[in-house]
TrEMBL record:
Domain CusB-like three alpha-helical bundle: 202-234
One BP term from GO: plasma membrane copper ion transport
Family: Belongs to the membrane fusion protein (MFP) (TC 8.A.1) family.
Keywords (A to Z) from UniProt: Cadmium resistance, Signal, Transport, Zinc
Residue ranges of the region described as Disordered: 419-461
Top-level taxonomic group: Bacteria
Boundaries of every CusB-like beta-barrel domain copy: 273-346
Name under which the protein is recorded: Efflux RND transporter periplasmic adaptor subunit
GO cellular component: membrane; outer membrane-bounded periplasmic space
Gene3D superfamilies: 2.40.30.170, 2.40.420.20, 6.10.140.730
Domain (CusB-like barrel-sandwich hybrid) ranges: 141-269
Function field: CzcA and CzcB together would act in zinc efflux nearly as effectively as the complete czc efflux system (CzcABC). The CzcB protein is thought to funnel zinc cations to the CzcA transport protein.
Amino acid sequence: MNLKKKIVIPLLLVALAAVAAGGWLYKTGGFNKDKDGHSKLEHAAKQLYTCSMHPFIVKDKPGTCPICGMELIKKVDDTAASGNQTPEQKQQAEMLGHVSVSPTQRVMANVATIAAKQTTLNKEINAVGIVQYDQSRQGKVTAWIAGRIDKLHVNTVGAFVSKDKPVAEVYSPDLLATQQEYLLAIRSRDQLKNSPVAAIAQNGDGLVASAKQRLMLFGVKESQILELEKAGKPNIRLPIYTPLSGIVIEKMVQQGQYVNTGDPLFSIADLSTVWVEVEVYENEFPNIHIGQQVEIRSQSFPGRPFTGRIAFIYPFLDPKTRTVKARVEMANPGQKLKPDMFVNAIIKVPLGSTIVLPVTAVMDTGKRKVVWIETSPGMFEPRDVQTGQQTDDKVQVLSGIKPGDKVAVSGGYLIDSEAQLKGGSGHENMPGMKMDEPKGTKQPTAPAPAKKSLNMDDMKM
């Protein structure tokens, strides 16, 4: 029994010593020593440095990149990239999203930058239009009484007529009889006005007023009635006048033709002002408003623009052309613009003061729009922007950048290609850029290791 105790007790002491030594080796990383004598924990605690342009370059102390000569930055470990980042680690992660362009690359790719600034932007909407008659300045000459056209003063379409000069003379038996009634009423009034009976004197005035009213309903003017009173005899022909001065655009009667009451004789249009009906596509329709200035250009008068303003926007859409018509009223000096003439219209839309960039500065990925900002000489970072209206070569930036930011306006594709070489898929996978990937997918957090065939002393592959 004593012999067993003497054997068991030393064995237990040896086992306890082995367990204690193993725990100490495990805690210090002795089981995970590599060939250089350092444990994995020591490697994890050690700060490593990498190149922002060539992330496969890894060193254990600061220095320069052996490929591009750039200053090395601190390498961010996987735990920092997983979300538990200190402010310093976040800053380093953001630096990995930057892209460096060497002076040689900048010259070869023609990388140019401008400072974003707030300026006034005017959008121009190009449309086509057709010149039309001003409908408020059109009129018809009609026969106010049945009769025969004895004389025409206007015989051709296109002739100019004045509202102060007659365009035709008509003979009408009804008009002749009404004139005789009016002259007879005047004589009767003159005879009865001296009657001692007041009712008889007033009756004479009533007959004159009734006959005069009938003449005016036949289209006889006040001046013609006064001439009739002075002459004392009826006119065989009644002169016909136009309601306005203008151009004869339609002639519907011949000399000697009999007409009925209300028959049209001429169509007259005043071309001193015209309408231009422009067609605006439905995507540009929200930008047009009543009162906007419009510039009209015609191939008949190159280099001589006309100006007008939008007076009316039609409340319906053409289902065939998907356009909305807008009416432009404008003066027509010299009657240069002819009805049914095709013209080009330029509608200027002021967008106010905003940040404006060249179109070439914005890269459209299909999911977002990105610009490259130069944060320091040769160092660029991507920035998501929201754009607004676009002109031929300018685009309105609503958010994402501020005045003073240096934006790359050319050579952006070189910068983007450098970002793809660095991050695997360009600015879509850079730190700080939002992703629109399907749920369940995971982006790589570190670049793929280089091939082992590259045996460089200062690179840890």
